[in-house]
Design a protein that fits this description.
alpha/beta, 3 helices, about 35% strand, globular, DUF779, about 130 residues
Length: about 130
């Protein structure tokens, strides 16, 4: 059986911050929108605090069991891209849970190879919310 490439990954630094935030706040989730400025950063919320709808696509889970969602329009634009959540020093959006930590989550990415894209296409569409 061929394993599918992950649509979402996280760096060890992001995982460490996610672990710390989970200890402080409880179960988490991420949502990646297609907005401008901070709106294009991955936003970290308490799980269930952000209402996921039918127009949201589940990219996968990081740091154990933290779901990462993306808006459908943004997913269509990024469908050939592996999304990697990382963390850097600085202040990001005020709504994201890492804001008071002096760190911010950001997205890095890489294009899937042609063979990876073919595997993902053959597997069908990822799960949607709602």
């Amino acid at each position: 059986m061929v394993s599918l490439p992950a649509r979402i990954l996280s760096t060890p630094q992001a995982d460490a911050l996610i672990t710390r935030l989970t200890a402080l706040h409880g179960p988490l989730m991420f949502h990646q929108s297609g907005g401008c400025c901070d709106g294009s950063a991955p936003m970290c919320f308490l799980r269930g605090e952000f209402r996921v709808g039918a127009q949201d696509v589940l990219l996968g889970r990081i740091a154990g069991d933290v779901p990462v969602w993306i808006g459908a329009a943004q997913f269509d634009y990024w469908r050939h891209t592996q999304v990697i959540i990382d963390v850097v020093p600085g202040r990001g959006a005020g709504m994201s849970l890492e804001s008071p930590e002096g760190l911010r989550f950001l997205v890095r990415s890489r294009l899937f190879s042609d063979s990876e894209s073919a595997l993902l296409e053959a597997a069908g569409e990822p799960a949607r919310g709602g």
